[in-house]
Amino acid sequence: MGEVFDHKEAVFFVGGTGNKDGDAFSGGCTKEWYDANFTQLSDIMATDGAPLVTSEEVSFTNSTKNFHQTNIGVGVEVGMVAYISGTFITPGLYELTTRVGDDDVIFSGVDAVGDNTDSTVNIGGALSSLQVAFNAVDAAAYNVWVYTNKDETLVTQLSLVYFAGTPELNTWLTVEGFNTTIGDMLPGGAYYQSPLSELIFGIDDDCKVKILGNGSVELLNFNEVTNVAIQCMRFTHAANYTFSATNTTSNVLFRHCTLDDASYVCNAVCNGFVFEDCYVTNMTTTGNVFKLKGYSFWFSKCLLNLSGTVQTGINLGLGDTYGDINITNSIILNGAVAIHTKRYIYATNNTFYNQAAGCLLVDGDTSTSISLLYAKNNIMMPSVHTVPAIVLGGGAGRGGGIVNDYNCIFSVDGQVLDKVVANDAGTEIETLFDENNILADPLMVDPANNDFRLKPGSPCLNTGKSTPNSGYTTIGAWQQKQGTRRRKWWW
């Protein structure tokens, strides 16, 4: 892959300037050069994302790692990265370490066994697709960033295999979408939209980089990778699911992403997946939107807009009795059940609204009674008062481990629930209702039109319990203020 990954952090691009064509054999730059010198895309690439320098039939001297050709050094700088190939050279990405005038450049650690006169040297530029980038980079030893502004319609599923980060070294592969400038779709950027903004105002004008399946292919597969961050992107129109993962995949973060227009999000066997500030909508399954199996799944500041009355938002433990779901500051709307697990739910400061069969469903293991539920500071509103907010199935709660406190529990039809907690046979479990819960209308601004802010005088204001994950004392998903220009929401 090239020596640059063995000794420095690196930055690469997909798409780039103009028509965003890029080049399958482009380079990039070191993170050090990027931090010191990068101001705009044209600093590192030419028209339509082409390399700054594309030189063929370059003379190479192996003993000095020197490449010689007229004007090969014009317009390039130390710290840029080139894709290099040629006779006796292992093709890959190498760092430019010395510029000897206009006609000679030296690259660090070029893996070669002899001289040649037929080298190809492409300095800088943008890569042509995310798959090309996935195949080219390696974050095992040092962090790697891939910035893309290119919408892609897939012919085959994107596949990320092996070459991501390393937990022991805390190195990460970060893939981030942008519109015109790096970071402009992060919070505070000109094109950032929160999940609530997307729900209320639609995603047609959403500027996230789009990965489209065209209804015929799945979108993304993680195969034995760790420490990957995907942010500021929209994965849409898959044939069936948005992503899949093997059981050796762990520590994957989706941040500021939209996942929509598929049957369901995932059928994943994995560990340590995090969804932060993500919007999930327009899934067509009659079952589970998130089908999860493994350990430790986190949802923070997310919005799941379920379809109809039969979908389950998050289901953990298909064929498994292990794993935990941690969800905070998130909203799950509609469907049959917001969250269904066989093991453990840690839910704080969420709003669960308009579920037809209950907000939280915990199935216990009847032999070990290992299921646990920790629910505090949530607004739980089933669609009708005859449906309980919490349903405990199997052996759930037989051994204790159920915390249901400081929640506001009411129904969308405007009445107090007949049963707040019930077993799967419909029998009420009164002992699992703690004294600090509130059975009253939370007085949200306009929930029927997706405005879940609290009115002045709401019983949820400052009546919750500070928790380790949220620190908030207001019950429900916590919003501060509504913005203006791009209709932002702060959570």
Ends apart, CA distance between termini? 41 Å
Helix content: under 10%
Number of DSSP helical runs: 3
Q: Which consecutive residue ranges, at least 5 long each, have pLDDT under 50?
A: 480-491
Percentage of residues in strands:
35-45%
Biggest sheet strand order reads: 10-13-16-19-21-23-26-29-32-35
**Rg of Cα set:** 26 Å
Structural class: mainly beta
Query: What does the main sheet amount to?
Result: 10 strands, parallel
Averaged pLDDT = 89
Q: Helix and strand layout, with pairings?
A:
Elements: E1 10-14, E2 28-30, H1 31-37, E3 53-61, E4 66-68, E5 80-86, E6 89-100, E7 104-107, E8 116-123, H2 130-136, E9 144-148, E10 152-153, E11 158-161, E12 173-177, H3 195-201, E13 209-212, E14 220-223, E15 226-231, E16 233-236, E17 241-245, E18 249-255, E19 258-262, E20 264-276, E21 279-283, E22 288-300, E23 303-305, E24 312-316, E25 324-328, E26 331-333, E27 337-341, E28 344-348, E29 351-355, E30 360-363, E31 372-376, E32 379-382, E33 390-393, E34 402-405, E35 408-409, E36 421-423, E37 444-446, E38 451-454
Parallel strand pairs: 1-9, 9-12, 10-13, 11-14, 12-15, 13-16, 14-17, 15-18, 16-19, 17-20, 18-20, 19-21, 20-22, 21-23, 22-24, 22-25, 23-26, 24-27, 25-28, 26-29, 27-30, 28-31, 29-32, 30-33, 31-34, 32-35, 33-36
Antiparallel strand pairs: 1-2, 2-5, 3-4, 3-8, 4-7, 5-6, 5-8, 6-7, 37-38
Describe this entry's structure for a reader.
This protein has 491 residues and is mostly beta strands. The C terminus is likely disordered. The protein is elongated, with a radius of gyration of 26 Å. The protein has three helices and 38 strands. Helices cover 4% and strands 40% of the residues. The strands form three sheets. Strands 10-13-16-19-21-23-26-29-32-35 form a ten-stranded parallel beta sheet, covered by helices on one side. A six-stranded antiparallel beta barrel has the order 3-4-7-6-5-8. Among the domains are: 121 residues, no CATH class; 156 residues, no CATH class.
